[in-house]
Each structure stands twice: as C-alpha cells, then as structure tokens.
Amino acid sequence: MSEPSTNPNAAFPPVVVSGIQPSGTLHLGNYFGAIRQHIALHAQSESYFFIVNYHALTTLQDATALRKYSFDVALDYLALGFDPSASSLFLQSDVPQVTELAWIFYNITPVSQLEKGVSFKDKVAQGLSANAGLFNYPILQAADILIYGGTLVPVGADQKQNLEICRDLAMRFNDRFAPADAPVLPIPEPYILEHVAVVPGVDGRKMSKSYDNTIGIFDEGSELKRKVMGIVTDSTPLEEPKDPDTCNVFALIRLFADDAKREEVAAAYRAGGYGYGHAKKELLGLITNHFAEARDRRRELAARPDYVMDVLREGGRKGRAQAERHMQAVREAVGLITTH
Ligand code: ADP
User: Is residue 112 part of a domain?
Assistant: First the structure.
C-alpha cells in the first residue's frame, strides 16, 4: 500500500502567479523584491502575472492616473524582458471573477486575522485612510492567487504575512467545503529571496509607492540624480570609517553590484576617507547602467501602445479561462447554483 502523500499540492500542477499594483511608478523595491523574480520565472512553468488595478483603488482614486499607471506597468514588464508568448500578463479587472471569489472568502475569514495585518496597520499609521478595501486587501490577494490555482508566489519579504493569510484561507476552504482526499484549492508557497529582504526608500523606510520615497526603475537624468543624492544617511564626517551594513545607500549598492564591487565599496566605507557623496555617485552609475538596455526598449514600446494593449487582451483571455475553470469548482463546492 502506498503512503499517503504529505505534499498538499500533489494533486495540483505547478502554477506561478503574482500581481503588481499600478498605484504609482514601479520602483527599485518592486524590481528587486518581485519583478526580477517574475522575469526569471515567467517562462519556466505555467504562470499568470497581473496588474492589480482593483487593489490599487484602495489608495489611488483618480481614473486618469490609474489608467496611466496600469498601462505603464505593462510597458515596464515588457521592457524588462517579459515574453508574452511564454506567459500571460494582464489586467486584474479583465478577470472580474476574482471579486466573486473574494466575496466567498470574506465569509471564512475572521475579522481578527485581518486586524493583525501589518501592511494595513502600517498604511494607516502612515496616514492613508482606513477604508474597507484596504482592510480586506489580503482577501482579494488570496483570491488572485487561488483563482489561477497558484502554487508558487514570487513576492517581496513584506508580503510574508499576506501569503500566510492566503494559505490559511485555502486550508480553511478545503476543510469546510471539500473532501479530505480531494482538495479544491492548492496551498501556495511564497518564493522570497531572503537576501533581498526589504529594499529601503530614500528616507530609510520600506520603499513603497504609498510613502513617496521611491526611486523609479526608469528614472533617469536629473530626477534620478536628485533622488539618489537625497538618500538619507547619518552625519559621519567624510574622513571617518563608516558601517556599510547600516547605510541606506549601501543597502541599494549591494543589490546592483557584483561581489567584487560590493567588497570594494564596503572596504572603502570601513577604511574612512570615503564619503556618502562618493557612495551616492557609485550608486547613480550602477542604476544607470543596469537599466540602460531596458530603458531603450521601453522607449520603443511606448511608441507602440496598440501592441501593449494586444498583449494585455490576450493575457486576459487566458487568465479568464483559467479563473473560470477554478470558479466552477468553487461554486460547486460551496453550493452556489448557476443556471447558465
Ligand atoms: P508598493 O508597496 O510600492 O505599493 P506593491 O504592494 O505593489 O508595492 O508590491 C509589489 C511587489 O513588490 C510585492 O511582491 C512586494 O513584496 C514587492 N515590494 C514592494 N516594495 C518592496 C520593498 N521595499 N522591498 C522589497 N520588495 C518590495
């Protein structure tokens, strides 16, 4: 007799999913925390990447801006190397079934679990209004993942808790609505690069579109320079030794630099006679070089908006088909009768 499987996802094919908010211009935190992993993984297995414009509404309530940022995210992904023939890139609102699944999930989510939400508490503490969308954000996120049967979710370290909420929801749903040997939903695993941790913004807090402390992936020229030169540091004088491990500038340098460069800059910090101004110039050069090719590609793509919309349309078609398959199983499991 064979042993019972201990892998809760044995019955599910591997599916990579991840979403990105179009609530502002994409930044280095998004890139190192998520997008770089998205680009690396998107062609390896079945995958769905979506621009979560419903989520963006929790903080961005300006139709023109939402439309612009949504389109720009698509442009950014394509410029950074996303191949639409290998995966799907689409708009969350092209799959309205996610809001249907979110509603079902509301009913099996304890309010107490959402009240502990670090991301919610953090955003409210930073002065954002505590609307119900912001409070329920993790539920819609869980629906986003599970509706495509997501088993692997590449996200930044700041998303750990939301992923836990998603896993709890999937387990609770299966316990309540599915036979033990035939789960309806997989239990997704986060894919987090621990060494990236949380990318700091120019003010030293987590870099976030909500905090106005970002460096955009495609910032260039005087704007990029102004932001890099404005990164907050302590006031250790130029000639004194400095600790690279507590410096916001070095935290960004280490993400771009290869091992040799990283060691060289760290040694210069420790030796003294190397000021934060030097480090900022180094960082400016690293950012400019790293995204040079993508910047050119982005310019070319920006001149072809119809192509970008075609990519989103085709991605949406695939996303809807996959979502509808899973929703049929969910509706059936919870006892929602559909007559069409
Ligand atoms: P934002 O906080 O700027 O609105 P999102 O919530 O849209 O960012 O996050 C999109 C992805 O980028 C998520 O996977 C998130 O984990 C990642 N991410 C966002 N900010 C950071 C950061 N400062 N460091 C690491 N990853 C981040």
Answer: yes
